[in-house]
Amino acid sequence: MKLPLIGCAIGALVIATPALAQTPSQDDLAALVRAQAAEIAALKARLDRLEGTAATAPATIAATPQTTPATPAPERLAQVTPPPVITQPFAPQLVPPGPAERDITRARSAEASGVTTEWGAGLPVFHSADGIYTFKPRGRILTDVSSTMGSRYNGRNTTTTGMRALRLGLEGGVGNHFFYQFESDFSENEVDIVTAFIGWRNRIGKGIDYDVRAGHLFNDRGFEGSTGSDSTPFLERTVVSTAILPQRGFYGIGIMPRLFWKTGHASLTVTGDRVDGNQGGNDSRTLLARAHWNPIKDDRRVLHVGLWGFDEGLSATAGTLTRNTVIGGRFNGALRVSTGALLGGTGTTGYGAELGGYVGPVWVMGEAGERHARLDGSRPDFVSKAWSLSGGWFLTGDLPPYNPRLGSFGQPRVLKPIFDGGPGAIELTARYENLDYSSLLTGGRGWAATVGANWYLNSFTRIQINAIHWDTDNRAGAYIGPDNGETVSARVAVTF
């Protein structure tokens, strides 16, 4: 659009310049070039202003007569509408902007629409302008390495690595009542749907509210059994959590109403099998209940008391009760406490208790549980017993990440993250745990003592190390008889 007009202007200047009728000198040519350059610059500036007017007021320009004199004067050029020649495949307002322009445009659009974004644990939370819709991506990356030594069986003295969790998911809500969550885990070379539910929450009265969730639900069972894998103070949950549980494991499809008050909560869960369970027959049925109470609760102190129990009716296709329970690290498959092969189960009943709390940066928690597995025929029940005592101390003065609403551990609130120039939060931990399957002739037993350290770089990033002395006595399997040794494990974890 600009080039034809500028060319006409140059032609007019050449014709009208008397110096061209004679042979020009070098000085004349230099002066002429400078004059023409000045005229071209002036015309270009006026054309830029003209096009700016066309972009902001197309109706006015369209009404301008489409006439152009043969030799337009500069003043006349400012009133002439350029011909409608399109030299690019996009309208000017649709031309893809550069990276910086794109970011600015999106930011202005978000601001204009009223959408707000807040950054929490590593990822943004989006809120609609009217406050009705919320959305947040979520996930966790837990990477472990483990080395076992000292066993009298060479097959147990191994060094292994693994992804304890590799999750991606989302959560959100509509209004004040409806909410949802979905997560899928990709660890151990498998795709596994974990949490997946919709829910409704409301308030009953002052200080009392409830929610009801339906879908693929995580157990509310025990202190560490109700704590997510990204929030446990040790690399693996206690044997109370891993052994005294329904046969279906930590998840099941069903419904869970929960009631909350100022000093505690209670839940009731009715579920069938896991989301990827056997679809060839009836589901097993599990009824589970838990309640916790904080008789002491202030800014620096909490006393925690909890009770839980479950009853499970097994389907005909789920009669296998064999257990091989972690005792010295998740990723050493040879290091387990085993029941031996156990078939013919018809149901299980389990129960447990929790007692603990914290004062300032020091916490302690004791758990115990028992599980009775009912066998067909005249055989007596298979009884599993487990207990543990755990504790921790935050050297940096941070408070333990206790969640008084759910009676479990969550993500810590680090007072001085390293990304702000602080030391992060440093915690020392210790635990003793004991597991007994010996009510069976083929059942084993085991115990483990663990010392560890956790370094929380900020509220969602941490490094953990555990040193475990373990002792087992299995009566079945590849590693029979008394055995003991040490396992050292470490983890790098990010939760968002």
CATH-assigned fold name of the largest domain: Porin
Query: Which stretches are low in confidence, meaning pLDDT under 50 for 5 or more residues running?
Result: 1-21, 53-107
Q: What is the fourth-level CATH superfamily of the largest domain? A: Porin
Topology order in helix (H) and strand (E) letters: HHHHHEEEEEEEHEEEEEEEEEEEEEEE
Strand content: over 45%
Residues in helix, %: 10-25%
CATH class of the largest domain: Mainly Beta
What does this structure look like?
This protein is of the alpha+beta class and 496 residues long. The protein folds into two domains: 2-77, no CATH class; 113-495, Porin (Beta Barrel). It is built from six helices and 22 strands. Strands 3-4-5-6-7-8-9-10-11-14-15-16-19-20-21-22 form a 16-stranded antiparallel barrel. Strands 12-13 form a two-stranded antiparallel sheet. It has a two-stranded antiparallel ribbon with strand order 17-18. Strand 10 and strand 11 form a beta hairpin. The longest helix has 31 residues, at 26-56. The protein is elongated and about 120 Å long. InterPro entries: Porin_dom_sf, Porin_O/P. This is Phosphate-selective porin OprO/OprP. Residues 1-21 form the signal peptide. Keywords: Signal.
Task: Give the key terms.
single chain, 496 residues, alpha+beta, Porin, 16-stranded antiparallel barrel, two-stranded antiparallel sheet, Phosphate-selective porin OprO/OprP, Porin_O/P
